[in-house]
Every structure is written in C-alpha cells, then in structure tokens.
From TrEMBL:
Subcellular location field: Cell envelope
Cofactor(s) in the UniProt record: heme c
Protein name in UniProt: Cytochrome c3 family protein
Signal peptide: 1-30
Amino acid sequence: MSRFPTVRRLAAAAAVALFLASAPCVQAFAADAPASGKFLADRHVARGMKCDACHVSAQGGKLKAEKSDYGVCATCHGDYQKVAARTEAKYKDSGQPNPHNQHDGALPCTECHKGHKAGVNYCAQCHSYVYKVP
C-alpha cells in the first residue's frame, strides 16, 4: 500500500491550516460553523470574497451600510424586488410562497440571513413553511 495518498492529505491539511492562520476573519467564524454545514459567511469566503467586502474592516466587526433597509447585501444581490424575482422559480412548484415576496414587505436581509450564525426561518414564527435558510 502506497504512502503517497497520505502525504498528499497531510500536505493539503497543512495548506488549509496555513490559509486559515493568515486570514483573521476566516478564523472568527470557521471554528463556529455547525457540523451540518457552513454559515453564509463561509459560503462567501469560499467564493473568494474578503471580509472587508461586507465589513468596515478586513478583520470583520461592524458591517458597511448597516443602517440601510437591505444592508450591505444589496450591493451584490440587488434590491429586494430583484432578489424576489430571481428566486421566484425556485419556489414556483414548492407549495410554499417565495419568502422574498411575502406579506411583511421588504424585510432587512438579516432577519433571516445571519452571516456568521445559522440562518433563521422568519416565516415560521406564524406559518408552518419550511425554508432552508443559508
């Protein structure tokens, strides 16, 4: 049996550890990610975004555009109506309404999407809708 695959796995693990050690904002939430999946912020980092794309500082902390209706999310994802239109097909045949096009109006994105914490199904406060919220 060859030891080469083991060496490759060790080298890959070392590369990941080196990356995490050099990225302060990644350290801040990677260790807290639930075993069942990643937080929304992890998904953004995996796509190459840096912490200061959303946060005032490269080390994280306060969000940019914190006081706006849609927060910093609209910078990349567009306004609430654009998100509702883009996600309409996903819910068309689900038997559930599009959570981005509902009766409470244009909610702040952070009502459901928490970034460094597990997402929250806001609609479940009153309804029995089951949404997987990133």
